[in-house]
Design goal:
By secondary structure, the protein is an alpha+beta fold. Strands 3-2-1-4 form a 4-stranded mixed β-sheet, with no helix packed on it. Strand 2 and strand 3 form a beta hairpin. The longest helix has 13 residues. The mean pLDDT is about 80.
Length: about 80
């Protein structure tokens, strides 16, 4: 996909709330304690249903000066991974 087209698609994805957070549990090493923790992973679920990893869209978003942190904070649910 051309860079300009990808940037426009990302803008549309932001507008349409297509970005999803996934929670990946972080497991302590044997004998360690400290509660339950998880890592949040941002993915883009496109209108066609494809789920894209950050490497597919992050460079274009950064080059266009788009902030994906707003996409993460506007997400209403977190999918378990």
């Amino acid at each position: 996909m051309r860079q300009k087209t990808l940037q426009e698609a990302i803008k549309a994805g932001l507008r349409d709330r297509e970005f999803v957070l996934y929670a990946q549990p972080i497991m302590p090493l044997a004998g360690a304690s400290g509660g339950r923790h998880c890592e949040l992973l941002l993915r883009w679920q496109t209108a066609s249903g494809d789920i894209l990893a950050p490497g597919a869209f992050l460079p274009a978003a950064e080059q266009a000066g788009l902030s994906l942190s707003k996409a993460a904070t506007r997400t209403t649910s977190v999918e378990p991974r």
